[in-house]
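WARN no homologs supplied; continuing
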Amino acid sequence: VTRARAMIGKEAVIKQKEDLLQIADYEQLTGLYNRSGMKKRISQCDSSHSFLAMGVIDDFKLINDNYGHICGDHILRELAELMRSKLDPNIFICRWGGEEFVFLFHDIREQDALQQLQDFCHWMNHTEFQYGEQKIPVTMTFGICCHQRLSLDELINKADQLLYQGKQKGKHTVVSG
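OK structure emitted
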């Protein structure tokens, strides 16, 4: 009986530890990695075949302003699910904040990473998100750069600069550098 109680207690501790790791590494609304989870993942990647992309939902403020923040949350959850289903499952996807997402491609060629983001943009161009009776078109703009042994902050800054170039070019595009 004592041994059985010890095993049950051990299983409960393991389950609690798994739950805490889930909370520590994943963002609550979307179920995607959070910044802490992304930092752990990027530290484990071989920088020579890794790429980091930052993507932002175009005109997300207008979605919130026109349809409300509950709709905005709905869009974020649905988009996260679509990212998981449409993009390679080996890509680490993080909700960086607000409508910003970070994608870590590892052990991949640059052209393949670019193609996946371009395909995702093309797919989004033909998709409308349903919220109640409303059909809401959603697009994203991406900036992607090579890891090159840069710190996470340097990578985010570089990808963010590329993303803003894409926004200046009219949005709904992928810019690499």
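The chain is about 50% helix and 20% strand.
OK
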